[in-house]
Amino acid sequence: MRKKTIMALMASAMLTVSAGFMTSCTDNSDNPTVNDNPNAQTDAPAFDENNIVLAFVGMSDVHIMVDPATSMQGILDEIHAKGLTPEDLGVDMQKLLETVFHNNESFQKAFPFLASMSPRGLDALAIPGDLTNNGLQAEIDTLVKYFTAEPTIKDKPFIFASGNHDLFNEGDTKFTQRMKASLPATAYAADIKPFGANDSRHSVVNGIHFIQINVDNYEWSNGVYLNPTLQWLEAEMADAVKADPTKPIFVLSHLAITNTVTGSDYISPDVPEMVWACDYIKPILDKYPQAFLLSGHTHYSMNNERDIMQDRFTMMNIGPLHYLISDNDFYNLGNGTAQLIDEYADHPQAVLFEVDKNGTTRVRCYDCGLGEQIGQPFIVNAPGYRNSLTSYGYDRSLKPGPTFPESASIQTTISDGKPILSFPRASGNGSQVYYYLVTISNESGVGDHIYRKYQSDIYSTAQEDEMAETVIINLGTLPTGVKYRVTVTACNVWNKFGDTLATIIDLKTDQQ
């Protein structure tokens, strides 16, 4: 299967857990909205699937388009506006046209599938940005056509925040206003504060509050929130908590908060100005443990426990409906700045959120291509209890690294002079196997070591036990006349190293 490299404008990269990252985990005990709750010393009730009051679809980065060439023009315009050319970024535009942009089928197929997973049907649709690929009216018209043709969702609230792709042509206010003019009135029927600062919205569906906050200005792929927008968010959060402090408040923002969910710390090595997240809204949301931030933008898969984070509130990255991107520097994906994973277009993702009468939320992530649930559901406890924010903290990075089977060993074959490694896959050991670090060195100890990261097939399967039982790595051409020591170390999604296997490869002769 071909592996492709995608331009830095659509990239994201692996979050490295460090001592500094760990210190961002903070105690919520000084938050008055926690201390004032009479349930603060008790555990939240278990999720009650017999009393679900709200079920809604979450999807992100839908990238509805008209045709590849037209939809690509916005990206070209964005590059040129920065005084650059595609070549400056190492971008092969033809390759992007051939590999990234396909069709809109995922959006059409996701709703019947997700509705079949929800006994009560669907109550709303929530998309934190990049509804369209280029912000074109023709793309909006296509999106609305699909939405209004789908019986499971067509008359329900359509809740969204605009993304950077939505603003490529007409600007934020015009995009949101054109959406309002194009969608049916029922899409906005749940709004209680329509078109606030920067056209942000506050909606209530079945008693649960949704606050959509639009970025005021995107600088490359990061963004800026101006004071009026931040003040509006502060006021709406306060109003929502006053209305009901015992329920989650879903906040939609295209951008995540830096160093939180997967992909949120990416900085392009080619364009340092390109950062994939921002911190503007964090001081506000820190005050509200009811906040449940839903973001997108990174195109990172949800086959990763780092997809959800809890600190003073809950944060979640919603995986893309339109093509998956992985971290940079995976050797088996081209070793580029940012990469499409294997089968990148075959695994559109979406989420079914269900809130019960007590305010506890069940989050079920789905690979709509496979028609399977990804991993196990996340259960986000109702706000105000002592265990409300303890399930998905940064302390998960302390889990031990992956383990190989006790009898595991590396088998080596030589094909056309290229060593090929074969070994049993490692198990996540409470997390997930993200990649294998391969070290190649001269057995004599002379010369440099070669380090390569090979991504696992974590994103091609919905469950760990569906991953390939045998891992095969082609080391490619190595200088002959050398005896090599090769080690393979399994690493989890937190960059925690686990077990290591080792072998000797003898290339002292040209013929093997």
Protein architecture, described:
The protein has 512 residues and is of the alpha+beta class. It has two domains: 341 residues, Metallo-dependent phosphatases (Purple Acid Phosphatase, chain A, domain 2), CATH 3.60.21; 97 residues, Immunoglobulin-like (Sandwich). The chain is 17% helix and 25% strand. Strands 1, 2, 3, 15, 16, 17 and 18 form a seven-stranded mixed sheet that branches. It has a seven-stranded mixed sheet with strand order 4-5-6-9-10-12-11, with helices on one face. α6 runs parallel beside α7. It is globular, with a radius of gyration of 24 Å. The two termini are 27 Å apart. The N terminus is likely disordered.
Annotation keywords:
single chain; 512 residues; alpha+beta; Purple Acid Phosphatase, chain A, domain 2; 2 domains; 7-stranded mixed β-sheet
* Rg over alpha carbons: 24 Å
> In angstroms, what separates the terminal alpha carbons?
27 Å
Largest sheet: 7 strands, mixed
Q: What percentage of the residues does DSSP assign to strands (E)?
A: 25-35%
Second CATH tier, the architecture of the largest domain: 4-Layer Sandwich
Per CATH, the class of the largest domain reads Alpha Beta
So what's the overall shape? globular
How helical, in percent, are the residues?
10-25%
- Report mean pLDDT, rounded to a whole number: 84
pLDDT under 50 segments (min length 5)?
A: 1-32
The multimeric state of the shown protein is single chain
* Class computed from helices, strands and strand pairing: alpha+beta
